[in-house]
Structures are given as C-alpha cells and as structure tokens.
C-alpha cells in the first residue's frame, strides 16, 4: 500500500508539471522575526512568545572532561519468541510469548481443531477441561485433559500445563500428576507444535487477563542493596538461575545449593560477556568475580542478590548491572 501511494503521488507530480525540492534543511536558514505589532487600539496579553529561549549568560563550563556512558544493551533471551517445552522433574510446560489473555483463544483453537469436546472453562483462572474421549488405540482407556495457562516469569510470556486422567484411575477428581506421562508428553508436544505453526490470534480474552500480573513474576528492586524478586518455588528458581547465569555471559565456578550460592566470573569469550567486561574496565574496577545468592522469603517468593567476591570491589552500579543481566534470562 505504501508503494502504491508513492507511485500515485509521483504520477500526479509529473502530470501537473510541478517540481519538488527537498526542504529538510530549510530550518537552518531561519531567522528571528520582529515581534508582532498590533494596532494601538488593540491590547492583548495572550499574544506573546510562548516558547521563548532563555539566554545563556549564566552558563558555566565545568572543569574536567566527561564522557557520555554507553546505554545498556537490550537484554533478551535469544530463545524468546519461539515456542519451547520446558521440563523439570516430572513436570513439563509449554513456554511462549503472549499474555494469558492472548494465548487463551489459541488454546481454544487447538482443541476445536482436534475435536476435543469442552466440559468446563474457567477463563479467570486460565483452565480448560475436556470431556472423556476414546484414544484411537482401542487398548487405551478413555481419557480427559486439563489445560492451565499461567503468567510466565518474564513480562509478556505464558506457560501452559497439561494434565491427563483416565477413567479407570480410581479417582473422580483430577489427580496431582498425569496417569500416563507418555500421553501427557504427546499432547504437550502436539500443542506446542500447533502454537508454533499458527499465527498469533488478534482476539484477547479479557477474563483470562483479569487476575494476571502484567509485569510477569520477576522484577528488579532498586535501593542501596538491589535485588531481583522472583515468584517461583526454590527448586525451579535454583535451576532457572543457573541457566540464566550461563546465558548471561558468566561462568559458574562453584555452587552450594543448601546455602543458595553461586560463585561466578565473567566469561573470557562470548558476545554476552564482552559488553560487561568493557563496562567493568571503564569503572576501573577489578570486580570480575561475584557471589549470587538466592533466598526464600516465602515458599513461592525468592530474593536474588549479588555481592563481589572481594569486599573492596563493592560497586553498586556494577552489582546492579549483574542483576539486570541475569534477570533478562530467567524463565
């Protein structure tokens, strides 16, 4: 459409015989005009220069030199933007970009395409339950599935959990874990493939957005001692933190899970570590080794802090940048 408009405009100019001149730099020749002169019988206080530029008579040049610091790099996991299946222990989930309200219609589309009858929906809590269905294999018992959408760790992401149950499981309620891990895995894989192949739906479920924090489950809290607040249970937070440290361009030299400590250093090579190495050198600091500590405030609320290995390298700006770097890769 843009190209078509440009062609039509060019044709119109050629047909009318008009000429065109680039006026982008005309402002350079602009001159200050005289104030507006009103007739003597007209008085108006509203006519004045609203955007008068003050003089610089009092301007003082500070001694010394100052170099403008480089802006922080855009920290984002390179794997974000793709549909992933993550697994920890016996639990697996689908991770993808989009808020729960955006993912809800896509999940309904997957179930409609697969011919799964819906028994119950709870958009506020992000739950869809299917009716009993018979697998194609006759030796398999009748089964049903529960899909749960939750807010992801990072802003603008969602997690989908799949739970499978069968008729002869002896449980009338939904079990804590799937009766068949193989069937759950196949359903999770099929859902992830569908979400990866399909385009994001433009519709949004407002009910699915109601009880969800738009900022995700992770945040950086500033102050004299900055820290990262992470709303995850300790087991998953500990594993996610290790993965984020390595993706951030650091090397894990040692770890102590019982104390919640990671000892890290800046990687010698790697694109993710080069910017930080230059930043540390600009600060004229030897702080290249750090201790990352994760503590449980509550069962599902973790606090991540960073401290230098050497007390003399306690540079708050450096420590906050380490936290920012790690925070961008936790999922």
What do these coordinates show?
The protein is of the alpha+beta class and 331 residues long. It folds into two domains: 84-210, Alpha-D-Glucose-1,6-Bisphosphate, Chain A, domain 4; 218-327, Outer membrane protein assembly factor BamC (TATA-Binding Protein, 2-Layer Sandwich), CATH 3.30.310.170. The protein contains seven helices and twelve strands. The strands form two sheets. A six-stranded antiparallel β-sheet has the order 1-2-6-5-4-3, covered by helices on one side. A six-stranded antiparallel β-sheet has the order 7-8-12-11-10-9. The longest helix is centred in the middle third of the chain and has 17 residues, at 181-197. Residues 1-18 have low confidence and may be disordered.
For the largest beta-sheet, the strand count, sense and barrel status come to: 6 strands, antiparallel
Between the first and last Cα atoms, what is the distance in angstroms? 39 Å
**How many discrete domains?**
2
CATH class of the largest domain, named Alpha Beta
Give the fraction of residues assigned to helices.
25-40%
How confident is the prediction overall: mean pLDDT?
A: 80
Structural class based on helices, strands and sheet pairing: alpha+beta
Q: List how many beta strands DSSP finds.
A: 12
How much strand?
15-25%
CATH fold name of the largest domain, please? Alpha-D-Glucose-1,6-Bisphosphate, Chain A, domain 4
**Series of H and E elements:** HEEHEEEEHHEEHEEHEEH
Number of H/I helices:
7
State the low-pLDDT regions, or none. Answer: 1-18
Major sheet strand order = 1-2-6-5-4-3
Overall geometric form? flat
CATH architecture field of the largest domain: 2-Layer Sandwich
In angstroms, what is the radius of gyration?
30 Å
């Amino acid at each position: 459409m843009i190209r078509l408009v440009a062609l039509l405009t060019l044709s119109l100019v050629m047909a009318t015989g008009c000429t065109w001149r680039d006026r982008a730099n005309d402002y350079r020749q602009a001159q200050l005009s005289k104030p507006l002169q009103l007739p003597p019988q007209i008085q108006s206080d509203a006519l004045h220069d609203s955007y008068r530029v003050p003089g610089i008579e009092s301007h003082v040049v500070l001694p010394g030199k100052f170099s403008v610091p480089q802006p922080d790099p855009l920290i984002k996991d390179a794997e974000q933007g793709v549909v992933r299946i993550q697994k920890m222990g016996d639990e697996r989930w689908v991770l993808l970009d989009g808020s729960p309200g955006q993912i809800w219609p896509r999940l309904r589309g997957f179930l409609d395409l697969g011919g799964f009858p819906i028994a119950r929906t709870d958009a506020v809590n992000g739950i869809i339950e299917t009716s009993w269905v018979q697998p194609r294999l006759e030796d398999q018992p009748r089964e049903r599935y529960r899909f749960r959408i939750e807010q992801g760790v990072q802003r603008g992401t969602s997690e989908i959990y799949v739970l499978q149950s069968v008729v002869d499981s002896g449980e009338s309620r939904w079990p804590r874990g799937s009766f068949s891990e193989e069937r759950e895995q196949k359903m999770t894989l099929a859902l992830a493939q569908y979400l990866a192949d399909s385009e994001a739906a433009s519709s949004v479920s407002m009910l699915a957005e109601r009880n969800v924090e738009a900022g995700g489950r992770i945040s950086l809290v500033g102050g004299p001692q900055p820290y990262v607040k992470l709303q995850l249970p300790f087991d998953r937070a500990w594993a996610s933190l290790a993965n984020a440290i390595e993706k951030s361009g650091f090397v894990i030299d040692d770890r102590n899970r019982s104390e919640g400590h990671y000892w890290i250093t800046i990687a010698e090579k790697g694109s993710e570590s080069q910017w930080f190495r230059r930043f540390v050198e600009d600060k004229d600091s030897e702080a290249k080794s750090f201790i990352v500590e994760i503590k449980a405030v509550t069962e599902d609320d973790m606090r991540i802090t960073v401290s230098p290995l050497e007390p003399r390298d306690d540079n708050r700006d450096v420590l906050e940048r380490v936290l920012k770097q790690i925070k961008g890769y936790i999922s």
